[in-house]
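WARN retry 2 of 3 for item q-0093 after timeout on previous attempt; input resubmitted unchanged.
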Amino acid sequence: MSDDVRACSICGEPYSGDGNEAEPVHDGSCCDDCNERYVIPARLEGTACVRARKATAAIALKSPGQI
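OK item q-0093 returned
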């Protein structure tokens, strides 16, 4: 682990340590907070699990006669 202080490529705030890969949100590295708030959700957005959850939610919103 590195003790260098770097600026997060997403929010610009300083963080220490190795940081996290910021893609697909941004190039470079990001802080733990941005990783949790933006990067991980963006990565999960394209997974089958998230698509299935959205499809299930869409079906639940329709009335019984529309399915």
